User: Fold this.
Amino acid sequence: MSNNKLLAGRYELIEKIGDGGMAVVYKAKDRLLNRYVAVKILRPEFTRDAQFIESFRKESQAAAGLQHPNIVNVYDVGKEGNIYFIVMELIDGRPLSDIIEENGPLDYRHVIEIGKQVAAALSLAHKNHIIHRDVKPHNIMITKDGIAKLADFGIAKAISSATIVNKEEGGQVMGSVHYFSPEQARGKYVDEKSDVYSLGIVLYEMLTGEVPFDGENPVEIALMHINEDIKPPSEVIENVPPALEKIILKATDKIQSNRYEDAEAMYEDLNNVDFLSKKVGNDILMEGAKRKKTPVKIDEENEEKLNSIISDGGKKSSKKKHKSSGEPSKFKKMMPWIISLIALIILGAVGGYFISSKLLNDNAGDIEVPSLKGMTYEEASDELASLNLKIAKGDEVYSADLEKGKIVSQSPIAKSKVKEGTKVKVNISKGKKAGLVPDVVGKKFNESDIASLLGQYGFSLGNVTYEESDKYDEGVIVSQNPSAGSNQKSGSSVSLVVSKGKKEKSKVPTLTGLTADQAVQALNDAGLDVGDISYEESNVYGKDYVMWQQYSAGTELKKGTSVSIKISKGMPEVPESPKPGSNDGSGQD
Assistant:
């Protein structure tokens, strides 16, 4: 018999296949239906909020009603003890985030195809009055057949409904700040257009290989979504179809009313670009894009097609096309064939060069990207040049810690493995902004030193409390409030939490077979608390004996952790059969 944990008497947990900020995902076997599924279990810190749990339950049940080829199916939502879980379709594929990281920037055709599929999924959700609120590459699975599947409707809604700022975690922003809409960053009203904005950011990242906004901390990035304009994709990479760029910029407009009305309208425009790409070819679609190739002259008919693919509100243009007569018409009909022939000749030459270059470069060793944070642009340029890497200027951003002209962040990040000649983009400090709180988390706490540091930025040291921490050593600052990068009035105070050292752990005792009183005493002796106590009938355990415990005996837990148990109500009662000759209640003797 398997030693794997059995959840709800039905789902056998086989192995962990995912680990996120809100939940852990397991591959499991549904013993009832004899099929493999994915079971997502909420992390314990989210199970203590009754409002969160209720929101999570309702939204998960609503998401379970969404049947669409581009949505991960939700089969079941349940609870066992204080374990809350969702049972979902097991996807044979990878998250889009991994694909972008390994292969980005992606070809614009793949960007359009994936974008259409996600927009189609959101369109169904929006028609059912469900807003996803956390559209990001990590929540988009790509199957081996290239099908995009959107996941995590339930958790996304529950998280957003609870709060964006978690005060218990030092004001840390919850959710996926790189893909937040400006209204989400402000904590304002969220609707279908918020999902449209997030999908626009995903398209941007697929097309360019990077997110439009990045910074030192979540608050800084959220402020960029609110205040800073998105750099057009064509200014980041070459060969961006103008029609696709127009869609992305419309979807990511900071003003909600300027975006697409909903995902269906966005789908229409993406579909129009896809249709035109297949009909008139790559060169016509790329007309006007930044590129190294000599542009192909465009005729009137194809120019009209290109100009009409993006319409207000995402609907197809109703403009009528007028054909000219005579010989020019024949030439226009031959145009795609001529373009194709030229393309084949160019492709053959370029292909030969590419193959020979790849054969030569495949043996080149990977180069580790150095950390450039704190360097000037010139210092970083020299450092990268010594490694045969290139540098590119990114954005100028405010920094609470680095003086003007120093590098704040980079992409690819330090210690990434890249090929020779790779370009490293760096964001450079504009200096500190008045009222911008500095980052002191992770620094050794010395009252005079920290007070002096805060004073340099116009702030005073507030309350200092101490708590145990598994992440930080004793004496190190665990969290701060207000958080780093937030704007505050000059002269206001910054409160800190300092580590008292690692929290002591305790082993879970054997509880099954003990009486309820004995189990409570055993947990108290181990420094653990009693969690939920429930009662069930049992054919194995006698009445009032523990028949199940949440954690196996010997599991190491932090002292003070709650452990739930189930108590036996005894054997189920079986009604006695009526004695022969007795009145059975039928009214007959």
Summary: The chain has a mean pLDDT of 77. The first strand starts at residue 6 and ends at 7. DSSP finds 15 helices and 24 strands in the chain. The two ends are 52 Å apart (CA to CA).
